[in-house]
Amino acid sequence: MIYLWNALIIIVSFILMEAVAWTMHRFIMHGFLWKLHRDHHIPHKNKFEKNDFFALIFVIPSWMLIMFGIRHGCDYKMYVGIGITLYGVCYALIHDGLIHKRINLLAKTKSPHLLALKYGHLAHHQNDGKPDYKKEDDVCYGMLLVPFKYYLIAKKKKKIRGE
């Protein structure tokens, strides 16, 4: 039974991270820490961005939760940390791999769900590089959940390609 509880803690932590990531992206990255996130919205050829420092915001707490969880007999903190870490891995694969192609992975996916995530995030960047760009005009701040219309777009594009 304990294994089910531990698995549930990991799954719930993973799911809650989407809400944390959305809130941070919308109100912190596009808010008072815009100076760090701004370069992510400016087209460039650089391998790294100031925006990459946000990974530390998630790495440090997940590492500490895992470490203190292990020190306290592998208690719930360790499993929360694992859930946060798994979310971070998915974020890196989807955001940096599929969407921005910084990692050559998932680039040729045909998954409607992954394509919907891609189209949602591309909508978030649709105004990047325009002279009248305003961060307030951005949409779609999530990473694993996007509005349903992007699933319809993915389905429509898949049908057009004859897949």
Describe it for me?
The chain has helices at 2-32, 34-37, 54-71, 76-99, 112-124, 148-160. The chain is mostly helical and 163 residues long. The longest helix has 31 residues, at 2-32.
> Largest beta sheet, briefly?
none
Report the principal-axis shape.
globular
Count every helix, treating DSSP H or I runs of 4 or more residues as helices: 6
Class by alpha and beta content: mainly alpha
In total, how many domains does the architecture comprise? 1
Average pLDDT over all residues: 89
Determine the strand fraction and express it as a percent band: under 5%
In short:
The protein is mainly alpha-helical and 163 residues long. It has helices at residues 2-32, 34-37, 54-71, 76-99, 112-124, 148-160.
